[in-house]
Amino acid sequence: QTHFLFLSLQAKMSRPVRARRLEGIDKNIWVEFVKLAATYSKVNLGQGFPDFPPPDFLKEAFVKTVSGKNHMLHQYTRAFGHPPLVKILAQFFGKLLGRDLDPMTNVMVTVGAYQALFYCFQAFVDEGDEVIIIEPFFDCYESMVKMAGGTPVFVPLRLKAPKDGKLMSSADWQLDPAELASKFSNRTKAIVLNSPNNPLGKVFSRGELELIADLCVKHDVLCISDEVYEWLVYDGKEHVRIASLQGMWDRTVTIGSAGKTFSVTGWKVGWTVGPDRLLQHLRTVHQNSVYHCATVAQEAVAQGFQRELELYGKPESYFVQLPKELQQKRDCLVQSLDAVGMKPIVPEGTYFLVADISQFKSDVPDVPDSDEPYDSRFAKWMVKNKGLAAIPLSTFSCGAHKDNYNNFIRFCFAKEEATLKAANDILQKWKREKTSP
Ligand code: PMP
């Protein structure tokens, strides 16, 4: 009888549990590489987060909010965004976009930019819709489009050779206008834009954005514009908001992140800015899923923005100071990599830097016919043998294009001076070992 019971239980458990929408997206490189870094790394320049403290004014705002007299700040607030936060975001982004924004309908707060992205795909993409993704891309775009039932269509940034003797720059990675245009059709529902771009650090120029905008208008396509690194732009480059270009406001959702803006990635406060005709559908997803984001963190971020609005463009502004500090850190890592021959691609923005590992191939020989891209094996070998963690660039491409990116790895330079120095020491020692017999 026991045997019979066992068989009938087993039969019941043979029913597939996984929903079809999860097919092909179960593996996640971050889970694997975060674990490898935790186990082996002495210096972790892998996952993108600062190891320096957030600004005092923001920490103080949080502490005051938690310990202050207004105990209602420990309770639910307005579902689509804590009123002080949506009000200040509407004021701040209204100023940047040059239009009046209604805090209640043109702004919505989310659990980090991740959730804002997820909402966009859930709200706009139907089965069979195509979504154009510019490659290399923040990897979750592909799986989120698939989860929504859509089909990602990839268009690569192509590396143009830099002038002799010059370091490569993220600006050398460019879209081919004809190739981009060929991806738009009546099946295209949206394009995902990420400027400044993770992983390359490319800051799209006004001309490049106008090209994208013209195609969106021509084909009636939405733009999901992930601008989480909007303040991290170097060398006097300009961050152009695509929503500010002709014909784009009505078809663009702009996504931001307090995590990147104020160096508090763990707070998970993000937002969307856009026309009510688009945001109303994000509100539908929100009210039927998460409904509400942490009040205390929203209140503290609101106070941070209040300060930044008052200091806008002034030297004391965090949005002025942070990129200055990060530019120095970028230059420091560029120098370390250049000195050992791991050729850096100098980023114009973000806190990431991609480097060419070709000259290090003798240390980690290629395995012909391996399923795993070379850069992935290289990054694993590097963290295990040298204690230095980085992320393989092929992570940021679709399966069919992994080979186009497998000579590169991505470093995060939003790190304390001591961390960058420790990385430099590892690279120098490695170089010495390579050259001495
Ligand atoms: N977009 C990009 C391009 C990112 O790099 C990240 C974080 N790595 C996010 C969105 C997610 O931001 P958040 O931490 O606010 O969810």
UniProtKB/TrEMBL annotation:
Which coarse location class applies to the principal site listed for this UniProt protein? cytoplasm
What is the catalytic activity of this protein?
A: L-kynurenine + 2-oxoglutarate = kynurenate + L-glutamate + H2O; an S-substituted L-cysteine + H2O = a thiol + pyruvate + NH4(+); 3-phenylpyruvate + L-glutamine = 2-oxoglutaramate + L-phenylalanine
Entry's localization field: Cytoplasm, Cytosol
Under InterPro entries, the record lists: Aminotransferase_I/II_large, Kynurenine-oxoglutarate_AT, PyrdxlP-dep_Trfase, PyrdxlP-dep_Trfase_major, PyrdxlP-dep_Trfase_small
Instruction: Please report a single Pfam family linked to this protein.
Output: Aminotran_1_2
Swiss-Prot/TrEMBL cofactor(s): pyridoxal 5'-phosphate
Q: Which UniProt keywords apply?
A: Aminotransferase, Cytoplasm, Lyase, Pyridoxal phosphate, Transferase
What is the protein's given name?
Answer: Kynurenine--oxoglutarate transaminase 1
Natural source organism? Baryphthengus martii
